[in-house]
Each structure stands twice: as C-alpha cells, then as structure tokens.
C-alpha cells in the first residue's frame, strides 16, 4: 500500500505510517497515512512562518483562483471523496457526499470573500487627520480538527485561513486522515505556494502538543473534546496567542403540545440519531410537554423500527456504525449508566451483527429521564437520547437552558408566541425552530456559548474576526 505522506514546506515526506480502518468493516484498511514526529511538526511550523511574508501580501486574485479551483475539484469528485469519507468515518454515503459538497461550497464562499476584503475610512476627531481601519492576517494558524466531519470542518478552517492571507499547520484527527490528505493534495495542485499549507498527520500528544508549545503558532482553531479544548486554551494563554474552541454540546430539542407530530418526530430522530449521533450539534435531550408526550414517544419508537443500521456504503442504510471501539464503549457505558440511574430504556441500545465486522449499535431511546441524570448532563456523542417529560413551555425552557453547554437549541411548535420567546431566551449560539438541532448552512456564523465554545464564530463572513487582526492607521495630510 502506498503511504499518504505529510506535506512539509512543499515536500511530501514521511515513511512511518498508521493504518486507517473502516468502522463498517474492520477488515478493510482504508489507507496508510504518515505519522508525524515532533521534528516534522517543528519543520512545518518553520515552513509556515517562512511562507507568511509573501503569502500575506499575495494578490487577492491569486488566492481567489486557488480556492475556486479547489472548490470545483472537490465538487467534481464528490462521489469518490464522499465514499472515502463514509468509508473512514462511517456516516452514510448520502451524508458523506452531502458533506463533501458542503466542503466545496465553503471553499467557493471564501474564494468570493477574497474579493470582498474591506476596511473603513473615518475622519479623525482631530483636524487634517484621516483614520484607516484595515484587517491584516494573523500569521501562522494551527488547525486541529475532529473525526466526525472529516472534510467539512477542515474546509471551514483552512479556507478562511488562506483567504485572509495566513499560513497554516494542519493536524487532522488520527481516525480520519483520508479526506484531509485529499483536500491538501487538491489545494497544492491548485497552485498554493510551498510552505503556505503544511499537513502533519499523527498523534495529538506529539503533533498537537508541539503546535501548542510553539511561540511561532500565532493562533489555534480547534474543534474536539472539552478536555483537549481546555489544554489548547491554557497553552494559548501561556503564549498570549489567539484561540478558538468548538467543543461539546448537550443540545435540547423541545416538543410542545401544539407541535406537528410527524414533523417533530422526524426532527427529533434526525437530531438524535443521524450521523450516528456523532455531531456536536446532535440532540440527546428531548424535552416533551405532557399533553403530547405519550403520542410522541410511541411515534418515535415506530419511526425507529424503520431505521436501518448497517454498512455506511450500502444502499438503504440510514445510520452507519459508531466510529471505533473506544466510542462504542463510551456509548454502551452510558446506556448502562442511564438504566442504573432509573431511566427506562424504551428502544434499542443493543449491539448489532451485520455481514461485516463493524461497530454497529441500535439507536437507544430512554424515557422517564430527568435532567439531573448523567445521561442528561454529559455529552455521549453516540446514538443515545433521553426523553424528559415536562409540564409546560416554561418548564421546558428552564430545563433546556439548565446545562453547562450552549451550542444548539431546538423547538417543535406551531405557536408563534412560543417560537419567538424560545429564539430570544434559549441560551445557545444557534436556535432551530421546527428543524433538527444539527445540519447548518455554510455561509452563516456557527458556534456556541457557555461550555461549548470559546472565541469568535466560525463560517460565513464572521470568520474574519478570528483569521484577521485589526489595524488602525492615522495619517496627517
Ligand atoms: C452540523 O450540524 O451541520 O462537530 C455541523 C460538530 C460540529 C459541526 C456540526 N462542529 O458536530
């Protein structure tokens, strides 16, 4: 098998490799990917630093052309890349192709943003002086991405970093290097100069830690676990560097008595179980008012009976496997914890056997849960959700907000009054009315508050807050 190498200073390097396994079929090796060392990471940081002066002054048409070409190639190869994504991560082929198209759209959006770089000109409070406010690139950006969106998250961090004139050291999640390698290869062939984008695949404790320890990494954008996020934060404070964190969620999905039942069931099942529940925007707390509770639970149970859990690449599969053994253990541990805490396992939760050996888990639905149980407070990151019964809207809102996280918050209702009140009062970065908590647009801000996120928003034009720094220049004329 050929080794997919790291890209450092424009050269493909590395012979020490790890194997990438398909979670739908653990006998299937997706590929071999280089494992970067401390020295590799240091060389990548040095290359990014050296490339910065010229890239930061490059013309906007050059950047536009490279991002545009990248977008076009990603979209043209959507079936092949979507298949690779589903093979390495385990989400269904439809989800894999959809995510690939989204990555292309993100590159396309930021290709456009290159042409819209703007500043402000103001009069000074003093006579004969002009004030110009401009945005400049930050420098070397460290990008650390998770396994659950193998192509979209790398795209929404790399595209704005390059668009605004930064150089990059990129460390993808060890479990899913395939899509990351592919987009770096595409960007390089699209004409990116040497050293502007460096790819260092490998362990967080080696590659990630070396990035955290380096004074030459001027900003770090991270999506992943709360524990690692805290380490990124403390190391960044030490170096007085800019950092942006996207960590977990414990997103509520509220269902009110007046909801459209079919729509509410569909949105809840999507929120909780699609992409195997492995989305930080997934909902694992379904908060239901008592007038609709029993009908809703029965309908979700019926809907789940029709859901096919199987090989991600098979036609007809609705939910693929869990990503790996460690995550599967975490999911089944929480299923046990929920039962011990006194919640009722109303549906699923059992391991499934399929034609090929993989990490198959029947989506688990708890009922009779309370908001103080661990299954209601801690992020599980799998196809496990709990229904919490409440009296009315006021109690639903209070419980929805009673969490240390604040990423996405959903409600199913036909009441304009409650929808409007919920939009204003949900303590979350994103609110969804009659829509799943997950599945966001690529051209508008993404991010949360409380324990979910730190720093400015990702995506859309709001991304410039992280990837640029503001300069105010005064001229006496
Ligand atoms: C989505 O819900 O469409 O890791 C995106 C995650 C998020 C992305 C969610 N950063 O799940």
Core attributes:
Aldehyde Dehydrogenase, Chain A, domain 2; seven-stranded mixed sheet; binds 2-aminohexanedioic acid; Aldehyde Dehydrogenase, Chain A, domain 1; 15 helices; 2 domains; 40% helix
Notes on the protein architecture:
By secondary structure, the chain is an alpha/beta fold. It has two domains: 3-247 and 452-476, Aldehyde Dehydrogenase, Chain A, domain 1 (3-Layer(aba) Sandwich); 251-433, 3-Layer(aba) Sandwich (Aldehyde Dehydrogenase, Chain A, domain 2). 40% of the residues lie in helices and 23% in strands. It has 15 helices and 21 strands. A seven-stranded mixed beta sheet has the order 15-16-17-14-13-18-19, sandwiched between helices. Strands 10-9-8-11-12-20 form a six-stranded mixed beta sheet, sandwiched between helices. The protein has a three-stranded mixed beta sheet with strand order 1-5-4, covered by helices on one side. β8 (140-144), α5 and β9 form a beta-alpha-beta unit. The longest helix is centred in the first third of the chain and has 22 residues, at 93-114. The protein is globular and about 70 Å long. The mean pLDDT is 98. The structure holds 2-aminohexanedioic acid (UN1). Residues 146, 148-149, 153, 223, 246, 279-281, 438-440 line the site of 2-aminohexanedioic acid (UN1).
Major sheet: arrangement of strands: 15-16-17-14-13-18-19
Total strands:
21
CATH architecture of the largest domain: 3-Layer(aba) Sandwich
Task: Determine the N-to-C terminus distance.
Answer: 65 Å
Small-molecule components bound: 2-aminohexanedioic acid
Task: Work out the radius of gyration.
Answer: 23 Å
Low-confidence stretches: none
CATH fold description of the largest domain? Aldehyde Dehydrogenase, Chain A, domain 1
Number of helices: 15
Average predicted local confidence, pLDDT:
98
Helix content: 40-55%
Shape descriptor reads globular
Please report which band the strand proportion falls in: under 5%, 5-15%, 15-25%, 25-35%, 35-45% or over 45%. Answer: 15-25%
Total individual domains: 2
What is the CATH class name of the largest domain? Alpha Beta
Structural class: alpha/beta
- Looking at CATH, the homologous superfamily of the largest domain is Aldehyde Dehydrogenase, Chain A, domain 1
Biggest β-sheet strands, sense, barrel: 7 strands, mixed
């Amino acid at each position: 098998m050929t080794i997919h190498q790291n890209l450092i200073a424009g050269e493909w390097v590395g012979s020490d490799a790890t194997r990438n396994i398909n979670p739908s079929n653990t006998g299937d090796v997706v590929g071999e990917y280089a494992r970067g060392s401390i020295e590799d990471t240091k060389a990548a940081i040095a290359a990014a630093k050296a490339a910065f002066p010229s890239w930061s002054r490059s013309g906007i048409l050059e950047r536009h052309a490279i991002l545009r070409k990248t977008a076009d190639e990603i979209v043209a190869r959507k079936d092949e890349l979507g298949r690779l994504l589903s093979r390495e991560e385990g989400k269904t082929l439809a989800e894999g192709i959809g995510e690939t198209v989204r990555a292309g759209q993100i590159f396309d959006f930021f290709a456009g943003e290159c042409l819209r770089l703007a500043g402000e000109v103001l009069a000074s409070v003093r006579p004969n002086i002009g004030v110009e406010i401009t945005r400049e690139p930050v420098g070397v950006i460290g990008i650390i991405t998770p396994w659950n969106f193998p192509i979209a998250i790398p795209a929404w961090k790399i595209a704005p970093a390059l668009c605004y004139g930064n150089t990059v050291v990129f460390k993808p999640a060890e479990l899913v290097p395939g899509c990351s390698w592919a987009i770096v290869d595409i960007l390089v062939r699209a004409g990116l100069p040497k050293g502007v984008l460096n790819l260092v695949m490998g362990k967080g404790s080696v590659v990630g830690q070396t990035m955290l320890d380096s004074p030459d990494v001027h900003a770090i954008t991270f999506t992943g676990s709360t524990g690692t996020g805290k380490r990124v934060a403390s190391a960044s404070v030490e170096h007085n560097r800019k950092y942006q964190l996207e960590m977990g969620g414990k997103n509520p999905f509220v269902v009110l008595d007046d909801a459209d039942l079919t729509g509410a069931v569909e949105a809840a099942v999507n929120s909780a179980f699609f992409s195997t529940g492995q989305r930080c925007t997934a909902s694992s707390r379904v908060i239901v008012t008592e007038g609709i509770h029993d009908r809703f639970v029965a309908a979700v149970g019926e809907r789940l009976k029709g859901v096919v859990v199987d090989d991600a690449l098979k036609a007809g599969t609705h939910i693929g496997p869990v990503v790996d053994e460690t995550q599967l253990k975490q999911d089944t541990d929480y299923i046990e914890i929920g039962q011990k805490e006194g919640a009722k396992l109303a549906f699923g939760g059992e391991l499934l056997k399929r034609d090929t050996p993989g990490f198959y888990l029947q989506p688990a639905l708890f009922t009779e849960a309370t908001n103080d149980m661990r299954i209601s407070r801690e992020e599980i990151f799998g196809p496990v959700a709990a229904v919490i019964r409440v009296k009315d809207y006021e109690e639903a809102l209070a419980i929805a907000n009673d969490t240390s996280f604040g990423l996405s918050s959903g409600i199913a209702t036909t009441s304009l009054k409650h929808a409007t009140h919920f939009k204003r009062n949900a303590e979350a970065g994103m609110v969804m009315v009659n829509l799943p908590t997950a599945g966001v647009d690529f051209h508008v801000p993404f991010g949360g508050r409380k324990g979910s996120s730190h720093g400015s928003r990702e995506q859309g034009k709001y991304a410039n807050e992280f990837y640029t720094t503001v300069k105010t220049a005064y001229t006496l004329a």
